[in-house]
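User: Fold both of these, please.

Assistant: Here is the first one.
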Amino acid sequence: MEIKPGHLVEYNGENILQLTEISTTDSEDKLICLCKAINWLKRQIKTNEFSGVIGKNIIYGGENIYTHILYTYQAKSLFYDKVIWKQDPLFNSVYEPLIP
């Protein structure tokens, strides 16, 4: 199981909120189903969060909707304070709330 906490960073003069990532893979023998535990955890979190973002490629154009990405009220507030949502400062994609 891997958890990468999101956090604020400054990169090239821009304030960026990096996404929190929670991921895992099941054991090969399927005796331990960590993916089920992660999905349960995400369902618990979802009751207190917003879901759905639009991902936009700022270099090549194009966008996609990601309904499985959750965000907090605080993250939404930072977005409206001009903080950029990204997975990594070097990636081409930025994210914004699906429902403003």
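And the second sequence with its predicted structure:
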Amino acid sequence: MEATQHFKHSSVNEDYRVVLIPKDMVDFIKEKLGKDVLWVYDEESKELTLIKRPDSYTEALSGLGEEMWKEVGGTEYIRRDREQWDD
């Protein structure tokens, strides 16, 4: 399915754009991701990403940054950082 061939848009003004998505594409998205979909827009890359809304945000975000914390030393890093607060 070539997305650029199916989308139609009409500019409302320079800051706002309406995009009409054909029903077959909406049905396809619902089939793949369910009916609760998050639309995430990245300003830097100018990309819109559709993702399935997680059942639990807590579970979806659990472990985020785990590798980073391992690299800096985890709880030992936090302890050292907090000791500097007293200085």
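The mean pLDDT is 83.
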